[in-house]
Amino acid sequence: MIGWLDCQAGVSGDMLLGALVDVGVPLSVLSDGVAALGLGLSLVASTVTRAGLGACKVDVQVDGRGGVSDVRQGDNSAPSQEPVRTWAVVRDLLRDAPPAAHDAFRRLAEAEAAVHRVPVEDVHFHEVGALDALADIVGVCTGFAHLAAHHGLTELHCSTVALGSGTTRGAHGPLPVPAPAVLALLAGRPVLAGPSPHESTTPTGAALLAALATSWGPLPAMTVTAVGMGAGGREVEEVANVVRLVLGEALPGKGSAVVLDANVDDLDPRLWPHVLATLLEAGASDAWLTPILMKKGRPAYTLSVLCSPAAEEGLRTVVFRETSTIGMRSARVDKHALTRTDTDVVVGGQRIRVKTAFLDGTVVNRNPEWEDVLAAATVLGRPAKDVLADAVARLER
């Protein structure tokens, strides 16, 4: 599954929460992630309309006493009265949160440090450090982790992002829109002012996009399976104030992928099967070794890992942890994939999965899953080559 965020009206944390709930992520999943912060926070969802479009609005409550005051998308009210928090304090609060939540707040800290020209550890979070911003980031990252774990979400694309224009209020007084931190967070990504002369994208929303999006551009080729609409906090005249989350299956054909390469000459060779298995379990599409000869005639291997852009960071971590390499290369590549279906055949009462590949609707490959063949051979007490031959023979009938 792949996803696409339509941010033509901008983006904020609560808009993303609403889109996740509206697309089918249980509110309880998001609420449990937020409750784990131990700050007495909970989430409440309601149905609203924006420019006549139905959407989901998610609000943060503290101990059931109503919403927390925070500088929300399009809200020029006074800043939160919540205690000022340093990056070290926030980092400790996020100790049990999804890794993407750490990434998003780290990006916030670095952006604020650059804007105020202070060390990262000296950054004091005001708007972005208020309780509902913590809830937004943890809730959104929990929601996308749920989509990845339970629905196979592998890529999250994002449209050009509307940032807004004009001015807003910050902890230290008026700020220009786009806010300096928003520009820092979305540097290198496609943005525009957009149709609304208000703050359209908040630092929290920008940090979440920077941490979660794997590519940027128009709606990718997909078969749409679900659409979620997340509402912003106010009606605006110029555009429907919503973020749309579109989920679907990528159409077969050319897609983007990443290849990670590392040259390794000092790893005990007995470890390589474990390394390859760990990479595949962690989400690699494929992983392999190529024998090479390095400087001074040293024999070595190039470890190569093929993965989706969304899996790149996690797999890079696996390579550094499981091997002795201290550096690696990465390259974007085009990937062409055939449409595939899974069926099964029965050999001696044992089911063996079969992967079938199609080219323009015509079957071009059928292969029994080798692990199933081995399992069946063990149960039946037969040579694996005989079980494989029987499975292939049943495919040809």
Q: Measured on Cα atoms, how large is the radius of gyration?
A: 25 Å
Question: Structural class of the helices, strands and pairings?
Answer: alpha+beta
What is the share of helical residues?
25-40%
CA distance, first residue to last residue: 33 Å
Tally of distinct domains: 3
Task: Summarize the main sheet.
Answer: 5 strands, mixed
Which range does the strand content fall in? 25-35%
Can you tell me about this structure?
- The chain is of the alpha+beta class.
- The protein has three domains: 2-250, no CATH class; 253-335, Transcriptional regulatory protein pf0864 domain like (Alpha-Beta Plaits, 2-Layer Sandwich); 339-395, mk0293 like domain (Ubiquitin-like (UB roll)), CATH 3.10.20.
- The chain contains eleven helices and 20 strands.
- It has helices spanning 13-23, 27-35, 87-93, 99-116, 131-151, 180-185, 203-212, 272-281, 312-322, 370-380, 384-395; strands at residues 2-6, 41-50, 53-62, 85-86, 124-125, 155-158, 161-162, 166-170, 173-177, 191-192, 215-216, 222-231, 242-250, 253-264, 286-293, 299-307, 329-337, 339-347, 350-359, 362-368.
- The strands form seven sheets. Strands 11-6-1-13-12 form a five-stranded mixed beta sheet. A four-stranded antiparallel beta sheet has the order 15-16-14-17, with helices on one face. The chain has a three-stranded antiparallel beta sheet with strand order 18-19-20.
- The longest helix has 21 residues, at 131-151.
